[in-house]
Amino acid sequence: MSKILSHSPISLLSDDIVLNILGKLEADPRDWARLSCVSLRLSFLIRTICFPSLCCRSLPSDLLPPGAGAEGDVWASLHKLSVCCPGLLHAGVLLENSDFGLEREIGPDHSLDPSSSADSPSAPPVSSISSDPSLISTSSQDQLSVSSGSCWSLFDDLYFDTVYDHSEAQNHNFSAPTMDPGGARFRLGRGSCKKRKKQSVGPVDAHLASGSWNLSREQGNKLLASRFRGDCLYICNWPGCVHAEEKRKYMLFRGVFKNFKRSRVWRTISDSNRGTIGLDCAFCACRETWDLNSSFCLRSFFGFHDDGEPVVRAYVCENGHVSGAWTERPMYA
Amino acid sequence: METSTCSKKIVQLRSSDGQLFEVDEEAAMSSEILKNMIEMGMPSPLPLYEVDATTLAMIVESWNRRLQEKRGEITEAELERWEEEELLKSKEPDGDAICVLLAANYLEDEHLIDRAGEAIAHHIKDMTVEEVRDYFEIENDFEREEEEKVFQQNAWAFH
Questions:
Q1: Is the preceding peptide bond at A133 cis, omega within 30 degrees of 0?
Q2: Which ipTM did the prediction report?
Q3: Among the four A231, B59, B64, B104, which has the fewest Cβ within 10 Å?
């Protein structure tokens, strides 16, 4: 049979016909994602027609962007969130957490390790922090001023949580931190999280999620501390995407807050001026996220394993996208 | 307009390269554009300016087979197998699905548009980005930064 005309055949096809073809590839989300990379036209059709159409049919209406004018990026992130596992990296499994994340909060404990240096590569020198105003917390609650030598204390957070819901604060299973009169140091922004050099068996980066592609608020309610029960967090159904690693099994989940900037979680992390960590969101362009565990936004009863790893971890970006991992609770926790 | 053979009405079609085809009128009605021409009483042969002889031959055969299936002379499964293996050559990436789709689109044959669309979807499903571009004969029209961004957003799909 003769070949078609000299110009591209697809340019002769109307959008309806091309969408007809794309519609037949709906079953495997990777196909649309790959075809988005082929040309501007395919990318446009997939992001503005295919993704909204599928999201409107498969996701709770709460999560759909209001109005007809939502940008393609918003729909692309929503679609990706529903089908894409964040992977061990973006779920924070590869982060250093043997100190329960406290080192990020109050700086290293020099009394325990005399050889540790304040000028270690992972902790920027004091002068560089003070010269960059974006890295210095200005909240009166934190009272962080590196030059003055004062420091923020973990007790501040515990106090406020006790005021909100005493029962939630009672079971924190860590010891009181040692105050460092030399001035606590935050490591904020990019480069502040240490990634363990850990051999992982499964995929480290984001990939097509196994299990259900639905998101439910019921699952989100199981994650958040009770004082946040008014917030709408939708996460994927249990057990999420299961990664059986050497040490333990991780059930990776992903989710999103409805109206995140109006949520109590957002107020909590922004009012306390929580530092972000340099962990990219798997679902949008955010390069930093907040640790919901160390922000005490998760149910406290989850606890930690003997090696210090949290039973549940979760990270949220400014757009309300959540990545995290469940593990099986220790039998005798 | 049409010639009668026994009780069947026959219409004449002319391809873009001037070749004449005779086809059962009922079969030709699979095409909305031909249906309109016939109902308007347009004189034979009916011109099809954008379908060449080779493609039209295959399209006419597919109409005839659909008519046979409608009359119970062949099964639906037999029709589908012929469409996949002979018309669209679904298992061959260099098959003629795009030609058939373009012709079906011009002729406004919804069934053939759908079948050809399925065949194309099946072809491109497991192709790399470059292979899809070659298949559709399109160039990469992303700016460099846009391309990096879109690949980064969709890197998960390439694992």
A1: no
A2: 0.87
A3: B64
